[in-house]
Amino acid sequence: MDALCGSKFWDSNLSVHTDNPDVTPCFQNSVLAWVPCIYLWAALPCYLFYLRHRHQGYIVLSSLSRVKTALGVLLWCVSWIDLFYSFHGLVHGWAPAPIFFVTPLVVGVTMLLATLLIQYERLQGVRSSGVLIIFWFLCVVCGIIPFRSKILSALAQGKISDPFRFTTFYIYFALVLSALVLSCSREKPPFFSPKNIDPNPCPEAGAGFLSRLSFWWFTKLAILSYRRPLEEWDLWCLNKEDRSHVVVQRLLEERKKQQEQAARHQAAEASGKRLSSEGEVLLGGRPQAQEPPFLRALMATFGSSFLLSMFFKLTQDLLSFINPQLLSVLIRFISNPTAPTWWGFLVAGLMFVCSVMQTLILHQYYRCIFVMGLRFRTGIIGVIYRKALVITSSVKRESTVGEIVNLMSVDAQRFMDVVPFVNLLWSAPLQMILAVYFLWQNLGPSVLAGVALMVLLIPLNGAVAVKMRAFQVEQMKLKDSRVKLMSEILGGIKVLKLYAWEPSFLKQVEDIRQEELRLMRQAAYLHATSTFIWICTPFLVTLTTLGMYVSVDKNNVLDAEKAFVSVSLFNILKIPLNMLPQLISNLAQTSVSLKRIQHFLSQDELDSQCVERKTITPGYTVTIHNGTFTWSQNLPPTLHSLDIQVPKGALVAVVGPVGCGKSSLLSALLGEMEKLEGKVYMKGSVAYVPQQAWIQNCTLQENVLFGQALDPKRYQQALEACALLADLEVLPGGSKTEIGEKGINLSGGQRQRVSLARAVYSDADIFLLDDPLSAVDSHVAKHIFDQVIGPEGVLAGKTRVLVTHGISFLPQTDFVIVLADGQVSEIGTYAALLQRNGSFANFLRNYAPDEGKKHQEADSRTALEDKEDEEVLLTEDPLSNHTDLTVHEPVTYEVQKQFMRQLSAMSLEREGQGRPVPRRRLGAAEKVVQATEAKASRVLLTQEEKVEMGTVKLSVFWDYARAVGLCAMLTICLLHGGQSAAAIGANVWLSAWTGEAVVNGQQNNTSQRLGVYAALGILQGLLVMLSAIMMAVGGVQAARLLHQALLYNKMRSPQSFDTMPSGRILNRFSKDVYIIDEVLAPTILMLLNSFYNSISTLVVIVASTPLFAVVILPLAVLYLFVQRLYVATSRQLKRLESVSRSPIYSHFLETVTGSSVIRAYGRSQDFEAISDAKVDTNQRSCYPYIASNRWLGVRVEFVGNCVVFFTALFAVIGRSSQSPGLVGLSVSYALQPLWLGDVGSELDDTNAIRLGV
């Protein structure tokens, strides 16, 4: 470099050992000029690749763009003028040094590149360029030193030695400073960008680079939330790449690709193209499963985000080791009274800059990794929902609704929780290796003792993780059983209450809960023991290393630099050592969830090609050739050797005794059963009316339209034909009346007629009607048959397959199919079958008496009674609302129907014996009162979940504290206080140890110092373990009491279940109970630990550096201001998230119940879109919550960085009165992060809300 510059490249006397530092002109013209250029050229390939794949339209050439381009051109001109000036000197005989040719050339080409990048970014739609902002910033920073140096040189010499280059440099500096200022401004939105139709778009998409870096774009929402509680419409729409349909589609495509690869691989192996090794054959190795690992699909889908997070994490990890080295320099500076003062100020400044960079990169990493966790959860929920729509009936019997809800709630959440820890798999070993390396540099081979201790503890941590995983497997099984039982209880709550069965079912739930709590208690004790190990491990490693260092050689003196640089490195080492066990535990829990999800996704699906819909025999719409069907592969066939042909436009009746397979026949036509052999053909669209009507939780009109556009004439015709007009007069809101979950506020007959009206309105080609007349009165059945199904009905000319027991309607059918034992016994017209005197005639003889009784009962009623029956349908039949059975078990429906027939016959017998069932008639005034009450109560039907406002009430915290135990809570707080006092005592003792006088190159009382230090450290671990055990006992007790209170409250509450979706209640018993069980107690311990650590830091710093007390007040004001803004925002966001999560499960439960109807009408994609929209609504509150944590983290850690800066600064200012030990103690404490804001707010707005809502 000396030859390139023609002068000395570096001069220590000029730059370091002086009170007025400067750098040589060679250093200025080479390194300082080249650093920004090297950065831009190094970043160029990746940036061009990014721009090429992120085209967003082009930005119109604005004034801002013109000025930035002009500045770039001017900088290019200045560089070339400088180059030409050097050539001019060469021509005129005074040859400049080569550096004056190289540097202008490099800088000129780089400025030309920057100018071209400005225009290319404009064409790609980039509104704010982070790459160019950093480039201009580096140009300004590297230009500050020459800026000062040239002025000082001119003042020292009394003249300017090179006026031309002096002038061009200051022009260059002014231009790069202007370019930096202008680059911080945003361009206008791209001209041809995709139109954003979102009513409230997320401001992050249009935020500038600095705003994104500091999360300033979130500030507006924080201020709004501080002024008033946030509402749902205040939340931003999700970014396109975070929306469910995008995320789920990417995951499904990747999964499909891997399934195809696995299928090809399996086919190749089967054909002998890829033979297994001889050893595998001899061992009887089974062929590879066709279903690829779900985790592989997840990682392939979100791999790019994971790689970006790895880059951020690697950068942050490397930066974290700079401050301990700077601390070493600072302690040496304090120990050297002759060192120039600017050294200390420079070290303090570098520590601040390094801390700020670490903060910004760390929170970009957190933002990236938490958003990836959000996408994991979105993708898993979407895939599980889509799978639940296509699973077979046999799978439904294996995987209950409660289990699938747990997959969507708990297991998907576990993936979201574990994602932030995944990078620790490589980051923790890296941090350990770097820490051990720097410790080796500081303490030598003595560090191997600490490393050996860490290695010995790995098997212990592994054993703990294995045991924790075993507990987790058992606990999840119990959780599934509990949620499944709660789902069944909520489904039949009216029956339970009418029969007074609450105590019996309460005992069942509590027995499962007791087993769950037993496992929780064991896991909590294990966790407390491992907490003792985790707390003691860093200290034991420190103790072992320092003890080995002072023991191996008496001349090894433990001074302040060695002790506190080692303590800082051990503090860094403590993070991966503490996090690794948590990572292992989380991975163990997530592996259980992964296996459960993998098992569910690998279950059998319905064969979409089971029913051929393209080709069919001309003149027919439904054909079955030699069809044999079963509900499950391990069950005998339900239907055998069916040969059926239904002509187009025919009305076909399917009759037969109970359990003969009538409903199964319709299911086979819909593709719901597994086809063992034969062919099924159907041509045209299908409408399906199941035996048990499936009603959605929406308005009556929406139930009838079922996703189609409203045609008033057709809608009115459907209502009239299905005898619903009279019901609309009774319903409080008419067609707009909201129907409760499972049609809870409709009678059985009304539900069936709404289901039939849905089919009529669909105007399909084929109508599959599974005994739709069984749930209505005989005169209503006659009306529906005449107006809808019969030859003169609105469906005349359509193909109708009617399963019925109504014998009176059979003569009007085109032909009758008689089933017996799963086979077709007879087919023909009604008259022809009567003449044969076969199984059909036997069927008529068996069912004719029931029909006669029904007609006799109908004839005995007056017209006035019929009308009154219709008017009071809303209050009839309380039991019928909860007699729904599984839709894939048609035999049980027939049994149920036969049972109801027998009850009806018994009732008629009692009436015939002169004991009529008392019947109360309503007067006109009572009818008016009932109608008024119904209209008034409409507001209460299926209300939206209430969102709490304002701060969490102290009573909520008080209730949890009482549940844990007030004495236990007080003792836990005192134990943590004692642990912090012991930690301070240990570090103060270490500081005094380092300041001990050295006699003959040795320190006295080493054994005593080491013993006291060890005792204080072990005392810390014992106190923490005691507090963890007490918190474990109290947490399990609180979980028991709170679950018991919730359970008793729901079981003993009035019958509000008509207006409260069961998904909302299941949300309380699944996700919120999980929070109380597994999250709340550890969060409280973390809060106490962080609180006492923050107090300890302030106490130690003020005691060591009293001048620091001056800045405590302004830093505390800034901290509290940011904290208040954050708490108000995050608390409300978590409330909105909790409220918006319940509809996901309610909609899912509704979908699983009506999956056959959804598939029959071909509305699977519509329901997937509805589910995606509900997940997006939930994520709209999750995403701002993630941003709010990052917004808080940047600002709180900035306060912590200021603490580091002022601690180092005041140590430099008062170095004459400071000992190296005290400086090392205070700065090492200051370098510990302030987590109080995050953890305290987490307790406030995440967990306490679930107790208070």
UniProtKB/TrEMBL annotation:
Its EC number is 7.6.2.3. InterPro entries: AAA+_ATPase (IPR003593), ABC1_TM_dom (IPR011527), ABC1_TM_sf (IPR036640), ABC_transporter-like_ATP-bd (IPR003439), ABC_transporter-like_CS (IPR017871), ABC_transporter_C-like (IPR050173), MRP (IPR005292), P-loop_NTPase (IPR027417). Its main location: membrane. It is an enzyme of class 7 (translocase). The chain crosses the membrane at residues 31-50, 71-91, 97-118, 130-149, 169-185, 294-312, 342-362, 418-440, 446-466, 523-550, 1010-1033, 1098-1122. Residues 622-846 form the ABC transporter domain. Keywords: ATP-binding, Cell membrane, Membrane, Nucleotide-binding, Repeat, Translocase, Transmembrane, Transmembrane helix, Transport. It comes from the Eukaryota. One of its GO terms (molecular function) is ABC-type glutathione S-conjugate transporter activity. The keyword Cell membrane applies. One of its GO terms (cellular component) is plasma membrane. It is found in: Cell membrane. It is a multi-pass membrane protein. It catalyses: prostaglandin A2-S-(R)-glutathione(in) + ATP + H2O = prostaglandin A2-S-(R)-glutathione(out) + ADP + phosphate + H(+); daunorubicin(in) + ATP + H2O = daunorubicin(out) + ADP + phosphate + H(+); prostaglandin A2-S-(S)-glutathione(in) + ATP + H2O = prostaglandin A2-S-(S)-glutathione(out) + ADP + phosphate + H(+); sphing-4-enine 1-phosphate(in) + ATP + H2O = sphing-4-enine 1-phosphate(out) + ADP + phosphate + H(+). Residues 851-872 are annotated as: Disordered. Residues 851-865 have a biased composition (Basic and acidic residues). Residues 307-589, 970-1232 form the ABC transmembrane type-1 domain. The keyword Membrane applies. Pfam families: ABC_membrane, ABC_tran, TMD0_ABC. Belongs to the ABC transporter superfamily. ABCC family. Conjugate transporter (TC 3.A.1.208) subfamily. PANTHER family: ATP-BINDING CASSETTE SUB-FAMILY C (PTHR24223), ATP-BINDING CASSETTE SUB-FAMILY C MEMBER 3 (PTHR24223:SF405). This is Multidrug resistance-associated protein 1.
